[in-house]
Write a structure and sequence with these properties.
The chain is of the alpha+beta class. Helix content is 40%, strand content 18%. The protein has 3 domains: 2-226, HUPs (Rossmann fold, 3-Layer(aba) Sandwich); 247-334, Uridine Diphospho-n-acetylenolpyruvylglucosamine Reductase, domain 3, CATH 3.30.465.60; 341-462, Phenylalanyl-tRNA Synthetase, Chain B, domain 3, CATH 3.50.40.10. The chain has helices at residues 2-12, 30-41, 59-72, 84-91, 95-113, 125-137, 142-145, 172-182, 198-213, 218-246, 260-264, 268-281, 291-303, 331-334, 359-368, 407-413, 418-421; strands at residues 22-25, 46-52, 77-81, 118-120, 151-152, 163-164, 250-251, 255-259, 308-313, 316-321, 324-328, 345-353, 372-376, 385-387, 394-395, 405-406, 426-429, 432-436, 440-441, 453-461, 465-466. It has a 6-stranded mixed β-sheet with strand order 3-2-1-4-6-5, with helices on both faces. A 6-stranded mixed β-sheet has the order 7-8-11-10-9-21. The longest helix is centred in the middle third of the chain and has 29 residues, at 218-246.
């Protein structure tokens, strides 16, 4: 009966074919031994992987037990080991996090080396209920209530090999009944009874009390909550994708941008989901994106002044540039790449007399700072000013041997995205364009060996704000594909 149920789950929820080889993570505990046994008995190609964290004296014997159990049944088994304490010290992380990271790295590497289509863990319905309660206690949003999913990817480990959980609809009681009836051997991990860990306190104290005093079917209720939240999440994710399309969303190498005006028209829940989605597309670790990050970012995008920049999470910044919202990985580089009139730029101008020996230094300074142009002042025929590109504009870029180009051709050749062209900042005098910021100066005004008076042009923001991150970090929300308890 259980085997048939698992077989159906593999096909319908885990997207595994009958001839796909599965790598089962096996610790020797009752859950993981049940998993590998069931996969083997239903005829699914399976191999086992057991990892020795070196944290308990009996761990090596447990790995020996798994290898022996699998060998007796003709199940290939690969054993790995790691120094969790050293890894935790090196990475500055807790022991549990370090153990999980080393174990999953081993599992995905083993799966890739052996042509496995998926990695299976033994998380079951009781684990799911515990995970939901943990996230409720942490104040999680709807993504956290979804808890663990039967199918998904750990992008930090692999984007091609999924992590599956075929036992999520099976309870711990059903597994224990099977073990008692069949005499299935297993090993008890004594750390599972240590109530110093939050999950163990939930398992041994909170859930039994809830079952005794409030709802005898509390595990079923919490699992239904996870499924209901997952269905709602699918709908919200679909709405989020559509909202981003309406908001003229674009993604580049170092940034993503969208319309603030459209963003403001959405409800708060959808706006926050959009922010999480953008960060996900940029490769951010969503487990580090807490509720307070989203609230601070949303407030800036709704009410922030032009040209405001805030650090969001490590390595990512949120920017308001006129009516554009941006999340950047390199704000200093991006803001000068395609400066827009609507971002509120002004033009700083300074004239200097120089000697011939100073020319190379000024040329190098202009090369390193795209917000600066250094021109031959004698060739600038009026006070420079900023404007948009106008129909019929032509440009004689420095370095093109005097060739004149249509501005449309220049922008195409320099790979300026279409959505930036109509509002692009250029500097001109009364005879035409003298500088396309971030790209080229005009050949007419370029420095030459005879230049003795230079004009320095610099773009400056009319208004610039900077807001520190909220120092109250609080608990981190865990979203996306939940790892669940160790298995």
């Amino acid at each position: 009966m259980l085997g048939s149920w698992i077989n159906t789950t593999l096909r319908n929820k885990c997207h595994v074919n009958e001839d796909d080889k599965i790598l089962a993570g096996v610790s020797g505990g009752i859950d993981s031994i049940f998993l590998v046994t069931q996969l083997h008995e239903i005829g699914q190609p399976v191999m086992a992987a057991v990892f020795d964290h070196g944290l308990r004296p009996e761990a090596s014997e447990e790995c020996d037990f798994v290898e022996k159990y699998c060998a007796e049944r003709g199940i290939p088994c690969i054993r790995g080991e790691g120094d969790v304490h050293s890894y935790a010290a090196e990475k500055g992380m807790g022991i549990e996090e370090a153990a999980r990271e080393l174990r999953y790295r081993f599992l995905f590497q083993t799966a890739a080396e052996n042509g496995c289509a998926a990695i299976a863990t033994a998380h079951h319905a009781n684990d799911q209920a515990e995970t939901v309660l943990m996230h409720i206690l942490r104040g999680s949003g709807i993504d956290g209530l979804c808890a663990m999913q039967p199918y998904g990817f750990l992008k930090a480990c692999s984007e091609t090999i999924p992590l599956i959980r075929p036992l999520l609809d099976i309870t711990r009681e059903e597994i224990e009944t099977y073990a008692a009836e069949t005499g299935m051997p297993f090993r008890e991990d004594r750390s599972n009874s240590d109530t110093a860990y939050l999950r163990n306190r939930i398992r041994h104290d909170l859930i039994p009390k809830l079952a005794a005093d409030y709802n005898p079917r509390i595990v079923d209720s919490l699992c239904r909550l996870a499924k209901s939240a997952s269905a709602d999440k699918e709908l919200l994710d679909s709405d989020c994708e559509e909202a981003l399309r309406y908001a003229a969303f674009y993604q580049f190498d170092t940034c993503c941008e969208w319309s603030r005006r459209t963003y403001r028209s959405y409800m708060p829940g959808l706006r926050q989901r959009m922010l999480r989605r953008v960060l996900s597309l940029m490769g951010a670790d969503l487990s580090k994106v807490g509720f307070h990050h989203l609230i601070v970012a949303d407030n800036i995008l709704m009410t922030g002044r032009y040209n405001q920049v805030i650090p969001l999470i490590d390595g990512y910044w949120l920017c308001c540039e006129g009516e554009k919202a941006l999340i950047l990985t390199d704000p200093d580089r991006q803001q000068w790449k395609y400066p827009q009139i609507s971002q509120g730029w002004s033009l700083y101008r300074e004239t200097r007399h120089i000697q011939a020996k100073d020319l190379p230094d000024w040329i190098e300074k202009a090369r390193k700072h795209p917000e600066i142009a250094v021109l031959n002042a004698d060739q600038v025929v009026s006070i420079p000013f900023l404007r948009k590109i106008e129909p019929g504009d032509r440009f004689q870029p420095y370095g093109m041997k005097g060739k004149v180009q249509k501005m449309s051709d220049f922008l195409i050749n320099n790979k300026v995205p279409l959505q930036y062209r109509s509002d692009l900042v250029i500097a001109a005098d009364r005879e035409g364009i003298i500088w396309v910021p971030g790209h080229r100066v005009s050949n007419r005004c370029a420095l030459s060996d005879g230049t003795r008076v230079i004009m320095i042009l610099k773009l400056k923001k009319l208004e610039k704000g900077f807001v520190d991150q909220d120092p109250e970090s609080g608990e981190t929300d865990y979203h996306g594909l939940m790892l669940g308890p160790d298995k």
